[in-house]
Design goal:
The chain has 159 residues and is mainly α. It has 8 helices and no strands. The longest helix has 39 residues, at 41-79. 3% of the residues are buried.
């Protein structure tokens, strides 16, 4: 009799969402993930296989990109005579020795190199002189001349 009354009334807390109503949700979710996805077992296995292959391909591409960046850093370190990084060398070894620097990055490095060569040349120095303030340049020249005169007078007793 108590069973009949309890089944008619039900659990008063289950309608409020406070707990006790978890049995219905467990029955609604199937235990097989293929059925949950609405596929047959073979389709589900093929789908999982594709996901794993795509992930492996993405990881390989990512590793290759990291190795390209490491190669560029090694080139820049050689160019500017900076200490070598063991981490970059390990990254290149992991990806294989056939890693090349992307053309766009090489273009950027070459542009920087040509700009620096231009600044180091005589024409680059002349252009820098044009950018300088002439008053400042005159002050530096006169200060250098007076400094040379004073040093010469200290060393030479005839002057």
């Amino acid at each position: 009799m108590a069973f009949l009354i309890k089944s008619m009334i039900g659990n008063p807390l289950s309608g409020m969402g406070l707990g006790g109503g978890g049995d219905k949700e467990e029955e609604a979710t199937p235990s097989d993930p293929a059925k949950a996805a609405g596929m047959t077992r073979e389709e589900y296995e093929e789908y999982q296989k594709q996901l794993v292959e795509e992930k492996m391909e993405r990881d390989a591409d990512f590793l290759h990109k990291k190795a390209e960046r490491a190669t560029l850093r090694v080139c820049l370190r050689e160019k500017y005579r900076l200490p070598k990084s063991e981490q970059d060398e390990n990254m290149i070894e992991m990806a294989g020795d056939d890693v090349d620097v992307p053309e766009e990055l090489l273009k950027m490095v070459d542009e920087d190199a040509t700009e620096e060569e231009g600044k180091d040349s005589l024409m680059g120095q002349i252009q820098n002189l044009q950018n300088m303030d002439m008053d400042q340049l005159k002050e530096k020249a006169s200060a250098t001349v007076t400094e040379l005169k004073t040093k010469a007078e200290e060393k030479c007793s005839v002057m």
